[in-house]
Each structure stands twice: as structure tokens, then as C-alpha cells.
Amino acid sequence: MDRSRTVVVALACALIALASGLYLGAHPASLPHWVRAAIGVSDDNAVRDELIDAIREGYYKKVDRKALEQSSLKGVVNALHDPFSHYLTPAEAKLFKQSLDPAFEGVGMSVREDKRGLRIAKIFKGSPADRAGIHPDDVITAVNGRSIAGLPSSVATGRIKGPAGTFVTLAVLSPGQPRPRVIRVRRARIHVPIAAGRLVRHNGIPLAYVRLAAFDSGAHGEVQKQLRPLLKRGARGILLDLRGNPGGLLTEAVLTASLFIEKGPIVSTSGRTQPKHVFNAEGDTVAPTLPMVALVDKGSASSSEIVTGALRDRGRATVVGQKTFGKGVFQNVKPLQNGGVLDLTVGSYYLPRGENLAHKGIAPTVPARDLPKTRRDEALPIALEVLAAKVR
Questions:
Q1: Which of 2, 168, 271, 384 is deepest in the core (most CB within 10 A)?
Q2: What are the start-end ranges of the E strands in 261-365?
Q3: How far apart are CA 285 and CA 255, in angstroms?
């Protein structure tokens, strides 16, 4: 009995000594395998720590350990080779939250991701970006001298934003140019209406024109708010302009499509761990039969494609413009215990006819393209002509 007690005490002392060694600075990778297992340190974690320490001790330049640790987490997600899945460091997570502020302090443009940085989808008239000579289809490759290639758009736009009156330096690459030009832009408080509408007479026919900037919370209500007075004024057709609309909330896409579709499917979703779910029209339809045109371009993505595809598949609208972006997947955002965020693709969505748009987009029935460097909107008259022809 005394011998058994002696063995137990000896083992306890050994573990205490090992734990003390860890506390005092011994590295987990140097411990025996059975000890690492006993104290919950996996071989993979130990190898990662050993690798980071070897780099910090032997690399010819000084390297920050935290930066290496964050990069290793990014590497796990990058191994998915999915352009829409990202690990955001705690600092990037703060920029992500900042980018969600609808009344932001920035330079006045909407963007979409590009492998080189951010591609400009739309410039707001009279904004700092407009006055600086930035145009749609330009690509921002760096912010304040730091490359944004490969960053999620939410993080990259967060770097552009800042207090009104301060300056941000952008490297802007225009189509056909060999290298970017550097532009210093003064930030301003930008108030962008989520939806704007007006009555347009084309060949004497009154038509309702509504442009939607994004599918943020309340977007369907704003579309309805713009549309109702135009219908009361006698609009005989509806032009829904989704150009440069990067998407947003799936629920808002369903509710917006429901303004024009009385019942039946709008979109369905499914994933490896996500059961199939069909989203049907929610009711509260304001214009179930009026002729419609959906005007889109290559900046129309995600929820914009859901609405456009539902209107097309359900026979409610003719699609005019350019082929849309082609994002047929959706993400979940998961906060992590270190303050970072995992933005992970968890499933695909499908249009009423069963089509998934990933890497394909929606091809318009009637092609039309606005030339970004002209003041005239070349696509809009074509869309109005198509709509007027449907009314006659």
C-alpha cells in the first residue's frame, strides 16, 4: 500500500513539476507525447508553436508572434479556396463592424470584391470619390499604401472609412492603364438613400422607376414607400434598378420579391449541414400584375440576383442590362473567442426553376450597358423602351 502511495505521489510531483516548467517558460513541443496528451496539448498545436518559435528565432527579420499566429488561422480558412470564406483578425473584425454602418464616413462609392482589391460598382453623384475622378470599373488596389488584394470587401472598405474631414490615400487602377494612380481623398459623411423613386414618362407612358442600393434591413419597406405614390399617380409599369447593388439580407430579398409576386417560391437554400429550405412569397403584394423590367449589371450580386431570378423565373419581369456577378452561395458569420470572426460559406441558394448562379450569373434578355465615363446613362433608355413596349 505504501509503495502504491509512493508511486502516486511521485507521479503527482512529476506533473506538478512539468506544469511549473510550462508556467516558467518551458515549451509544450519539448514535452513527451504522453505528457502533451495528459495536459491537453495536441501534436498539431505543438508543431505549430514549434514552427512559429523557429521562425521568430531564426528568420533574418524580426517577426511578431501574434501576426504569425493570426496568419496561421487565416491559412486554415484559405485552404478552402473559397473566395467568400474569411477569417477576420480581431482588428479586421472591428473594421467589418464599421463597414456595416449605413450612415458611414467614407468617400461615396459602392464596391465589389476583385482579386486585385475593390472594383467600383457605383459612384454617388457629388461625393468625394466623384469629385476625385474615380469611375465605375476602376479598381482600388491599396489604401494608405497598404495592399488590399485578397481582403474581404468588408475589411477593405473599413480601411477606407474614417472620421469626416480626414484624408485617405487610394491607389486606383483604371481599365487599360498599366499602373494605378495615387489619389488623396477627403472623407465626408455620406447619406445614401437606400431606395429612390420617380415617375418617368417614356413615349407618353407613365412608368415607375425605383432604384435600390442594397438589401439592408428595411429595404423592402423603402421600395414600397417609393412605389406606392407612383402607382397612385398612374404608373403603368415598373422598372426596378438593381445595378451596382451588392446584395445583403436574404430576408429582405424575399420580402422585396414578394412586393411583386403574390405566392409561390422565391428562392431555396441548402448546404452540407443546412437542411433544404424553400422561401415562399410573404404576401403584402403591391403590384402583382403590372409589367416589369429588372435592370442589372455585373455589380448586381447575391440578394440582387435572388430578386432578379425570382422575377424572371416567375414570369414577372424582363431582365435588361449586363450579366450579373454570379454569387450562388451564402455565409454565416461566427464571432470567435479571441475577438476575431469566421465568415464561412455554409450553403447554396437556388432560383425557382432550380438554377444555382455560382460563377454564372443571370444573362439579360436584352443587353444594355452604361458607359461609366459618360454623364449619360446609356442603359436606362433601353430598359424604359423595353418596359414601355410591354405596357402597350
A1: 384
A2: 265-270, 277-280, 292-296, 318-321, 329-335, 341-350
A3: 9
Distance CA 228, CA 241 (A): 16
- Cα angle, residue 374 at apex, residues 369 and 375 outer, rounded to 5°: 105
* 250-258 vs 219-232: helix crossing angle, rounded to 10: 20
The domain 195-391 having CATH identifier 3.40.190.10: the answer here is no
pLDDT, tens digit, for every residue of 239-284?
999 998 989 899 999 999 999 999 999 999 999 988 999 999 998 8
pLDDT in tens, 349-371: 999 999 998 889 999 999 999 98
Annotated active-site positions, please?
Answer: 302, 313, 327
Domain boundaries, given as residue ranges, for the chain? 2-63, 101-189, 195-391
Q: How many CB atoms lie within 10 A of CB 377?
A: 15
CA distances (Å), 8 to each of 3, 4, 16, 76, 271, in order? Answer: 9, 6, 12, 41, 51
Which has the minimum average pLDDT: 72-86, 91-105, 158-172, 208-222? Answer: 91-105
Q: Where are the beta strands (DSSP E) in 203-291?
A: 205-212, 238-241, 265-270, 277-280
d(CA 111, CA 115): 13
Cell digits for 55? 521562425
pTM, two decimals, is 0.77
H-run or E-run covering 122? strand 117-123
The CATH topology of domain 101-189 is Pdz3 Domain (2.30.42)
